[in-house]
Description:
The complex is a heterotrimer of chains A (321), B (449) and C (761).
Chain A: E1 18-20, E2 33-35, E3 55-61, H1 70-76, H2 83-92, E4 97-101, H3 114-127, E5 132-135, H4 140-153, E6 160-164, H5 169-179, E7 182-186, H6 191-203, E8 211-214, H7 224-239, E9 249-251, H8 253-258, H9 261-264, H10 276-293, E10 296-301, H11 304-317
Parallel strand pairs in A: 3-4, 3-10, 4-5, 5-6, 6-7, 7-8, 9-10
Antiparallel strand pairs in A: 1-2
Chain B: H1 5-11, H2 25-33, H3 47-57, E1 64-66, E2 73-75, E3 93-99, H4 105-114, E4 116-119, E5 122-125, E6 128-132, H5 138-151, E7 157-160, H6 164-172, E8 181-185, H7 190-200, E9 204-207, H8 213-225, E10 231-234, H9 239-256, E11 266-269, H10 275-287, E12 290-295, H11 300-313, E13 327-330, E14 339-343, H12 346-359, E15 363-368, H13 375-380, H14 386-396, E16 406-409, H15 417-423, E17 428-431, H16 439-447
Parallel strand pairs in B: 3-6, 3-12, 6-7, 7-8, 8-9, 9-10, 11-12, 14-15, 14-16, 16-17
Antiparallel strand pairs in B: 1-2, 4-5, 13-15
Helix pairs in contact in B: 1-2, 4-5, 5-6, 6-7, 10-11, 12-16, 14-15
Chain C: H1 3-31, H2 47-53, H3 63-72, H4 87-110, E1 117-119, E2 136-138, E3 141-143, H5 150-162, E4 168-173, H6 178-190, E5 194-198, H7 206-212, E6 223-227, H8 234-247, H9 255-265, E7 268-273, H10 278-289, E8 294-296, E9 314-316, H11 327-342, E10 371-376, E11 382-388, E12 399-402, E13 413-415, E14 417-424, H12 433-438, H13 440-445, E15 450-453, E16 460-464, H14 465-469, H15 474-489, E17 495-501, H16 504-527, E18 535-539, E19 551-553, H17 566-575, E20 583-585, E21 589-591, E22 596-597, H18 598-607, E23 633-638, E24 643-648, H19 661-668, E25 677-680, E26 700-703, H20 705-710, H21 712-721, H22 727-730, H23 740-750
Helix pairs in contact in C: 1-3, 1-4, 1-10, 2-8, 3-4, 4-10, 5-8, 6-7, 6-11, 8-9
Amino acid sequence: MTAVEIPVEKWSGAVREVTLGSSYGGGTRTSTVTVGGETSLPFLGFEGALPHRPALAVEVVDMKPADWSPELVATWGDDLSDPANWAARAVEEGADLIALKLRSCHPDFGDRSATEARATVDRVLAAVGVPLIVYGPGTADKDNEVLVAVAEATKGEQLALGLCEEKNYRTIVAAALGNGHLVIAQTPIDVNLAKQLNILISDMRLPLERVLMDPNTGALGYGLEYTYSVMERLRLAALMGDAMTQQPMICTIGEESWRQKEGRAATDVPEAWGELAERGVAWEVTTAMTLLESGADILVLRHPGSVGVLREALDDLTKGA
Amino acid sequence: MALTGLQIYKLLPKTNCKECGFPTCLAFAMKLAQKGTELDKCPYVDDEAKTALDAASAPPIKLVAIGAGERAFEIGNEIVLFRHEKTFYHQPGLVVRVKSDDPQLAEVAARVASYEVERVGMKLRLDGLAVEHAGGDAAAYAAAVAATRAAAPGLPLVLMSGDAAALDAALSGGAAADRPLVHAAAAANWQAMADVAKKHGCPLAIRAEAGDLAGLVDLSENVRGAGIEDLVLDPGTAGLAGDLVAFTQLRRLALKKGARALGFPLFADAGAPTWQAELARATQAIAKYAGVIIIDHLEPAAVYALLTLRQNVYTDPQKPIQVEPKLYEVGSAGPDSPVLITTNFSLTYFSVSGEVEGAGVPAWLLVADSDGQSVLTAWAAGKFDAEKIAKTVKDSGIESRIDHKKLVLPGHVAGLSGEVEEELPGWQIMVGPRDAVDIPNYLKNVWGA
Amino acid sequence: MSRYIATRAIRGANAIVAEAEAMVDDAIAELGPDTPVAFTNTAYFLPVVYAFTGRKIEKLGDLPEVIARAKALLHPVPAESMWLPYLGETLDSGVATLFAEEAIEGVRFARKLEPQIIQLSHAREDGERFTGSDLMVHGDKMKLNGPIDDIQLRAWGIQLVDGRMPGFCAVVGCAKSNEVAVKIVRELQSRGILIFLSGNVNGRSIIHQLQEEGIQLGYDTFTVPFGLDTISAVYALGFAARSALTFGGMEAGQARDIMLYNKYRVFAFVLALGEVDDLKYATAAGAISYGFPVIADTRIPQILPTGVTTYEHVVSMPFEEIPGADDMERTEKLIQRCIEVRGVKVKIAKVPIPVSYGSAFEGERIRKDIMYAEFGGKRSHAFEFLRMKPADEVEDGKITIHGVDLDGMNEGDALPLGMIVDVSGRKMQTDFEPILERQFHYFINGVEGIQHNGQRDIAWTRVSKNTFAKGFRLEHFGKVIHARIHEVFGNIVDKVQVTLTTDAAEVDERIEEARLAYAERNERIANLTDESVDIFYSCLLCQSFAPNHVCVVNPERVGLCGAYNWLDCKASFEINPTGPNQPVPKGIVLDPVNGEFSGPNEYIHAHSNQTVDKVTFYSIMESPMTSCGCFECIMVLVPEANGFMIVSREDPSMTPCGMTFSTLAGTAGGGMQTPGMMGMGKYYLTSKKFIPADGGMKRVVWMSSNLRESMRPALEEVCVREGDPDLLDKIVDETMATTVEELLPLLEAKGHPALTMDPLF
């Protein structure tokens, strides 16, 4: 019998542990989610600790999305018209977190006020006990206005506020600092830009235990391999001890996969593509699984079917860890 | 320790005889250092140099071909653990499994053979069919294999049976000509399996129980001792986590420890009760090191996703992927729709077309051939200059499809607007935003205004 | 530390602490120790006390402890004969003063005397003009604001932290006149600086002055009246302390961290108007402990050395002595000085010109038929010159025009133009002058209807008819330069002034000045050697696609992309300290011949994912620098010729090494270390440190023809320097040989020196 000496990498670094949601000090969550803490590459339990399994978030929009795939519209039905119902249903479907997008505050999509945004966030907080990620409408000025108001109104809830980008991180970081929240730092698929933004954020004295990083997701067939490799590089650097890459990573899987043609087109597509109902989920699951393998800690998804498949996959991947 | 090109050069004859196919010994040496060619190509290398170079230049994971003819595929010859370190070279074969007693076997075989989907100008196909011996004797198995071959001529096969006699029957019945992968030699039957594989000149998979890497090493030593050179390793299945650990350890042992016994491509059985669970398993197998992947469901949506993923993961990270340079229509564009131009670097194209689509404004997107470079890089390299832009516009035939003459340039090349105007008389050159994310705003507020 | 200031501050502190103690004792006796003490709508108690000590003061009975802490910080007034550094004592006294002042305000709140109600000079009918949330006017009475409440703290605090609000100014005392008071406020408001008002001189306060002039006070106008006394200035410091607690991630009690946070993040300063008494000195000492400098408009001793504050501690600018035509101009200069002393960065939101501005206009062509006028080009000459000046010689935003302006010209005219830009900045260096100056091309081209070409004394600018018609004049060039330099180079430049002249004689005279400077700069760059510096710079820009590649740029080797030289990297680091260009200390010289240094080795190892641990700068035979993919040329060994060949990116031909540029790029690129091969910028060829250990230019046996021809004069100079003036034409190119078999006889025939040099390996 031959003895095989298993090569074990000795890593000196660890991913930071980040906790979303709080049930005290102003927080009203009934559950919290902690991610990060890894001291090995994804799911390689034999060479390091994997204290927390990756979390699944479901995306909820504060207005009925006009441009979503018919498959998503059919699946969620009337729940799409009410973010509180939508969020509650998402939790039933297995979401660990809700990612609420305040799209109606966008100047082009309703331009709702910060006050209205606060009311929406309050309703969703009341409807579910899980932690919340809150995304602004995606334009720098309005993001600042809306997220600052939301941050103040939800002091202590330990929300994750997004997106913090190089051009507007200061305001959102300040809002998070002042109100006990987290931020999501997004950079365009690049290791050094991700590091730089983390440095800038930590220079503002937001503890890095309150920062998630979003390396910017490319969907399957639409740049996935770039995200995949950048995430592998970030995670390797983190494990080698580079402090500014040790943030847990969050990926907006659902948004990216469902906006591609593969996630939307029901007709006039090659037969080899299969049916939209299967194809959309297949696209989302494949994108998600691939990025789990490269280090994703939070997946933001859109389809309940994908949540189920990934939940099972994660059960399997974290067995015995 | 890998040798540098210069170190290899010193050991070569330095005659520039060109018989290796390279113009100089230096060029050959540089390619050897990248493990992009083999030392055998040099007829004049002396034994001393050969010994020195062999160790350094032999690929740590053997290249194994499965199948014969046009649809044969090669796996192995990988040199890195992470694609960003260099690239992954040989895509894993995606193989659909059918049972030998499945009444629809021939029909499935034909569907697998004909499945084809196009992406970024490439035709993606399934690679083969695995015929699993289920019930029946050797003759029945041989008949099933023959039926499969008839239904899908030329499609590479994996013959899965624990019965060497059944395999021998199938191979003797003509399947040997297709050079199928024989699966699998295990501790109990390795000798018989090795004999069959050797007799028919087929690659052989060896299979140990999950978690028993030592067993795999023993099997490898045994069957290689029996004269089999082309191996595929099947470490058994142990759930997603167990498989990931096993595949990672095997790849590391081959690459970092130089474990010759384990220097072969890997076999992943991704089969699962539902296509969704199977999709998750096969995704992991593509991302993490598999050479052959078995699936049980011929669900087109899942197959399309997997083939796309494989294409993505196996692109060379240092060579930008290009999209076809041409005129793209986003939404149902008409004569009054805006015309935007960008370069054919895939990420650039994806970002721009995604944002244009997201804006909900139908538009014409002209993609110039920049050798796959992004706008700024192409501009700096002179591959996206006024001349190229003008030529792209003229060659695209866009003029006959619109009733205006306005062209939107990427903001990063605003400096070219004057020159483009000179190259394209009669056109109004507008300057769009620098970043794709600002396109929706531009189309709504500037273009329309 | 000035002994005078120390004496006054310490004396002031002793007095106010004694007064506070008496007030606290009286209040407890009168109202009882359980009487609540609370500032308006705040969760931070008495904020300075809370921030510095962690103590939550909630009732009168808690205040004696505050007094005790203040007393513990008091020092005896220095004796006349003592001559010691007093900084520690003075700062202690400052903090003691702040404690005492908060205690006094606490008592006043307990007695319901705060916020203060003041008597107006006359009843105002338009009372509703005072719309600030807490400000109310009743007939001839006005209620002042008192401390900032928490809601407003959050709104402003975020803006101070995220940089939208550049800083705040605590104005204490009374201005020379109402007019000056208004001007001070307007100057500060126009820069977006938040203003807190307090204090008086002989009973008159700037608050009186402003309300007499009908100036709107309150949160809405960023001008908040705290109180008529000096004591209420403590609210400003309470505000700063709460900002640090709220937005700085600080805990109450972390006194040192909170003070440092304010020094580095909160751009605040004190403007003391009128006579400075002991209490003002003592309070000012408290402000200085936060890192907030004090500027006085009267004659007081200055404390110029830096230390506790970033720049000067105390600056005296006696108002009457400020140069200026009138009080308005003097006020402008006073405020400008305040901004400089605190290092407040000015933001200019929009380039103030009558036409559009943006990168979209960069490529415009102004043809003759739409041109109004031009400067430079064939018909006149023009130059641009940026120089660094001492701070007191630059007046920010000043634009001077000499000679005829655009409206004095006729359509189609050409005139000479000189543009002289003076900048000052505490982080500005002479070496950065050309880097800033090079950007003028982009800055000016951003103007709608302007075409700009060239730089230095070959600048050429055209103005379109349309742009002229919309009101564009010469001064707008100045405004563009001023605004854009602040925007792009704000980290290194504090002040910018621009002189534009179309006066032919003046242009002729000053162009010579500029030419001298250009020549000097060229020389300075030429004299910059690897030996003359201690720091190299890294560039990690290309790691996005070549993850293990680290460029190290030294003075004598440009980045391989040709885009970054050492000075560019240095400036880039100053402008963007967390950006892709970082300093790499040279460290120990490990091998002077091959150019191996400990610093770069360590840096490259750490940043190449530990894949490269040694790089030699002067030889490519063993450990050349890695290459990303952006190189202008690739240099590769031709072993048969005992030399190197250099192929440029533009040259698609086969080369004597048996590989084309693109094959070579695939071999050398991607961040791999490939001995015998290296990507390089073409100007590296002209460097004295062009592979000196391998033999330098004499080793070059083959070179792409476009490279040789485009750089011929510079390369000929190199050959002369190398002692072989005919060397350049001994080098073969692709028109003569594309294989090594063709190459060797040519080299023999030309007598190329490489053939007889020592073997390369």
